[in-house]
Amino acid sequence: MRAFLSRLSLATASALFFLPMGASAQNASAQQEIESATKAAFAAAQQGPADVKLGEQAVVHLPQNMFFVPRFQAERLMQAYGNGKDSSLLGVVMPKSDEEDWVITVNFDKAGYIKDDDAKNWDVKELLDSLREGTEQSNEERKKRGFPELTVDSWVEAPKYDSNSQRLVWSVAAKHKGAGAEEDPTVNYNTYALGRDGYITLDLITQQSLVPKDKTAVLALLDNLNYVDGKRYADFNSSTDKVAEYGLAALVAGVAAKKLGLFAVIAAFLAKFAKVGILAAAALGGGLWKRLRGKKADPQQP
Q: Is Signal included in the keywords of this UniProt record (predicted)?
């Protein structure tokens, strides 16, 4: 995990240099909160194998090689590392082994029932073009805020939707403008499970070169995630339930521009990159993350 956080810190270092001094410098009380929040997170972590309840919506089976940090401790951890409050966060999944360098965030968005009709007609090339266009437009705002501009290269994995299980998977390659061809950027491998009231996301954060290996972790979770009775996609009642203002294509952060506004959708996507960078830089202090993580994963160690 420490190696993963180190790479994230390097990948976003240029962005962090532009942050206000008060935001990037850590005073004593901030460092103390980071340590306290990290200890609390690992003390509360649920070890696999276990069935983890995701709010009132679903249950996911956690395999033996992972652990889950619950909502309260995960939210405190994120805020201690400089992230804003995220009411949709349900928790964070991490690997027990230090040889695995990934993180999975778990969220529930109560958007309402999302109609999936548009999946039959979407054009992945058109979606990618929309995402590229939106990224260029959002770069103006990124420059104003002191963040480096981003460019979208290609799909890491083109959008795939299973209408039988209501599962969506997609990932795009984005990197800093001007970066060399040798750069191995951090990517979000996005997975969605649609339900009656909205959707749960399991977002894998890893390096692009490691996606083929690491995506097995998030796909295993996705395959073992089940909505509880009354919350399944099939339980939708058209006479009483809320229907989302957008369709399935909006979850691929491109076509949603037609209804919700291009900048808002793309900015939400790009925000993950900046957020993770701040988390990574803070977590590196003194190797605290690895030490605490090691204690939780192996309680027999001194």
A: yes
Q: Which fold has domain 2-297?
A: Protein Transport Mog1p; Chain A (3.40.1000)
β partners of residue 107? 89, 201
Residues sharing a CB contact under 8 Å with residue 218, sequence separation 6 or more, in sequence order: 104, 189, 191, 202, 203, 204
Q: Where are the domains of the chain?
A: 2-297
- How many C-beta atoms surround the C-beta of residue 48 within 10 A? 18
User: How confident is the model over 255-275, as pLDDT tens digits?
Assistant: 333 322 333 333 443 344 344
Contact 156/174 with Cβ under 8 angstroms? no
Dig out the tokens for 164 from the structure: 């039988």
For residue 146, give the amino acid letter. G
CB-based contact 147:236 (threshold 8 Å): no
Round to whole Å and give the CA distance between 213 and 137. 33
CB 124 within 8 A of CB 158: yes
To the question of pTM greater than 0.85 for the whole model, the response is no
Give the position of tokens 């990618």.
Answer: 128
